[in-house]
Amino acid sequence: MGAPPARPAARIPRAAGPSGRSHAGTPGTPPRAARRTLLAGIGAAPLAALAGPLAGPAEAKGALRRFWHENQQDKLPLLLAPLKASRDKLVKAERLAAAGDADGYAAAVRAVRDAGLNCYAYPDGDASDGLTSFYQRVSSAQEGAGGAEVCTARLVVKNVAVRRSDEGLKDALYDTLADWEARMFELDAALLGALGGDGGAAGRLDGAFSAAVEANERLQDGVADLVNLVWE
Among 65, 79, 37, 48, which Cα is nearest to 231's? Predict the structure, then answer.
């Protein structure tokens, strides 16, 4: 009789993620399932686990807020990244506009609208410049998205976790966001005017750029202040 066939080596199962499926994951990187859980919402069973075995809906919701808040404190740079990138693009746009010619103004319009994170509807301009017709179609997505939020900055603000007692602070943050959107609209309009040969509009550009950058910085500060609140 020959030796019995060797048994295949036992496979070591991978650790299961929050969804119950196994994942390999890159060291130091949260698994995809964990990120989906955070951004898409957590179901009733995980909520109860966070709050305790006898938690009711209110306790579970409070536990989720705390969990989300602590996670955001760890990932504040990631949360602020789109707003910081927007500010950098505004600074670039100001340098482009400083050329004081049509090419510089046209390039500045493109940079400003990229910095706008799809958060404001662009003012009307001369469609022959090759800019307004294209970007107006992009901004119209805000009206035709069927309820989906397309403004990246608004998504950042919307997803900042707050306690019920801090909801007034979040309302103030929405006001800061609205102010930034208004400053972006005004800057866009001034650039279009300068592009069209309006000397008065060109003269307003320095102030319009400063106002937009400062509004962006206030928005970043407001997000960071809410995320960094210490919850007792």
Answer: 65
